Known about the structure:
Blueprint: H1 4-9, E1 16-22, H2 28-37, E2 45-48, H3 59-70, H4 75-85, H5 87-90, E3 93-96, H6 106-116, E4 120-122, H7 128-140, E5 144-149, H8 155-164, E6 169-172, H9 186-196, E7 203-206, H10 212-217, E8 224-227, H11 229-236, H12 242-251
Helix pairs in contact: 4-6
Amino acid sequence: xxxxxEKFKNRDKSLLFVxxxxxxxxxFDFLEKFLFKNKDKIDILELGVPFSDPVADxxxxxxxxxxxxxxxxxxxxxxxxxxxSGITKKIDVILLLYFNLIQNKLEEKLKRFQEVGIxxxxxxxxxxxxxxxxxxxxxxxxxxxxxxISPTTREERIRKILDIAPSFLYCxxxxxxxGERDRLPEEGVAFISRVKKETNKPLxxxxxxxSSYQINSLKGLVDGVIVGSAIGKRLLNNxxxxxxxxxxxxxxx
Length: 253
C-alpha cells in the first residue's frame, strides 16, 4: 500500500488538491519548473501518460494527448523524466494510463513504477473483475490501484467497489467525458452524498471542475478535488496559469 489513505486521514485542510497534467505538455521543462515551484500546493499530482485513444477524455485533453504524442512523449520517457527530475521525492504522484500500455510484462512495469516512486495508478479501461485480481500484485509493489465510481455504476458494483477499493475513490460526478462545466451537476452531488453514507474511504471529485466557487461548494461532501481540463484549456491557450492555480489551491484550504 502506498499510504495515500493516510494522506487524506492526516490532512490539515478541507480538501486535498489533485491537479491533473498530461506528461510532457507543453514540455517537460515547463512542467518540471512549474511543479517544483508549486510543490507545496500540490497534495497529489495526477499525471496522464499520453495515449492515442483516451476514451475517458473530452476534446481538450484529447488534443493535449495528441500534441504530447506528436512530440514523442510516452511511458518510458515519462518515467525517466520523473526519476531524473526527482519530482516523486517532493510530490506524491499517481499515473493515469490505459491498461494496454502496461499489460505486457505487467509486474516488470509495476516494479519500475515502484522504483521511480509512483504512489498509485488510475486505469480507466480496467474492468472491475480484473482490478480485483490485480490489487494484491499492486500492493506487493506499494502501488495503490485507484478505482472509479459514477452515477451510472450499478448498485451491486458500487458495493463491490466500496468493499475492495485499496485507496481513495475517484468519483466521476457527471455522465460523459472530462471537461470543465459551469456548475456542479445535481445528479453528481446527490450520488456522492449517497455514497458518502456507505463508506469511510476518501472520496475525490473528478470531471467538470474549473472554479474556486465549485471547489468551495464541495467542502464537507468530498475529501479531495481533481482539476484537469480547466488547467489544460489554459495551457492550450498559452495562458500563464499561475494565478489561476493559486486560486484553485486557496479554495481547498
